[in-house]
């Protein structure tokens, strides 16, 4: 997998005819959010996990509109471990991962910062009616296959289509932490989807389906899905900020401690008011550099 990421990044550079980590000699020696538009570097390579791709796309759209000469290249989404290795090898300029960088993952060459929180939403296809809330026990019984029909929780007489994620993905880890428990067996009928984007597509096209994914994505894309309350708590940004809604993942950015000047400018933009506004307007909860994780 490490080699695949390296090959992919290098292929992207070759195809686009872009320099991998050099800057223009005319670029200023220091960069602030108000001067990034003067940069002439044409590409910043970003590696994101599937669960953080939504955030990096929001940042890309808004940053490129601010820094007219900057171009962000989104690499194929991958595992956090591969993204971290790509940064160490200088084939990835900036990474986004849905966790905090562990000390053992840092060989001394990396810097990281938590920049946003994203609530995880349990939602259904619009075909499911009569179900607005699920209790912890009901969630457990759906995910282990005990409850198989929506009428068992007050809904339609229709078979539940459970869209699930692998155990090593952040959505499933948080589901287990807050609702399922670590020892609950998975339903043999569950459809396991590797990438969060695949689950989001499936839940919109599969009648009577249920799944867990980014609340920010649902908000920013105005998805036509039923957002379920959990134990009577509505999945809203207000409830996330107050701590009433517990299923929230932290998103961190990771970069080399000696970043290129354009990469440093992007990092500064993420912490600037325009960057914070872009994240907040897209449904994320921004975390300022001074905030404690």
Please describe what this structure looks like.
The protein is of the alpha/beta class and 293 residues long. It contains ten helices and twelve strands. It has two domains: 2-19 and 38-115 and 250-286, D-Maltodextrin-Binding Protein, domain 2, CATH 3.40.190.10; 119-248, Periplasmic binding protein-like II (D-Maltodextrin-Binding Protein, domain 2, 3-Layer(aba) Sandwich), CATH 3.40.190.10. Strands 1, 2, 3, 4, 6, 7, 8, 9, 11 and 12 form a ten-stranded mixed sheet that branches. A two-stranded parallel sheet has the order 5-10. Helix 2 links the parallel strand 1 and strand 2 (72-74). Helix 2 (53-66) packs across helix 10. It is elongated and about 60 Å long. 40% of the residues are buried.
Entry summary:
This protein has 293 residues and is α/β, with parallel strands linked by helices.
Strand-helix topology:
Elements: H1 2-16, E1 44-48, H2 53-66, E2 72-74, H3 80-88, E3 94-97, E4 110-124, E5 133-134, H4 136-143, E6 161-164, H5 170-180, E7 191-192, H6 196-205, E8 209-214, H7 215-220, E9 226-227, E10 229-230, H8 237-242, E11 248-256, H9 261-271, H10 273-281, E12 285-286
Parallel strand pairs: 1-2, 1-3, 5-10, 6-7, 6-8
Antiparallel strand pairs: 3-11, 4-8, 4-9, 4-11, 4-12
Structural class, from secondary structure content? Answer: alpha/beta
Shape, principal axes of CA atoms: elongated
**Individual helix count:** 10
Q: Count of DSSP E strands?
A: 12
State the CATH superfamily name of the largest domain.
Periplasmic binding protein-like II
Mean pLDDT: 87
Major sheet: 10 strands, mixed
CATH class of the largest domain: Alpha Beta
Low-confidence stretches: 1-40
Which oligomeric state applies?
A: single chain
CATH architecture group name of the largest domain: 3-Layer(aba) Sandwich
Strand content: 15-25%
Measured distance between first and last alpha carbons: 30 Å
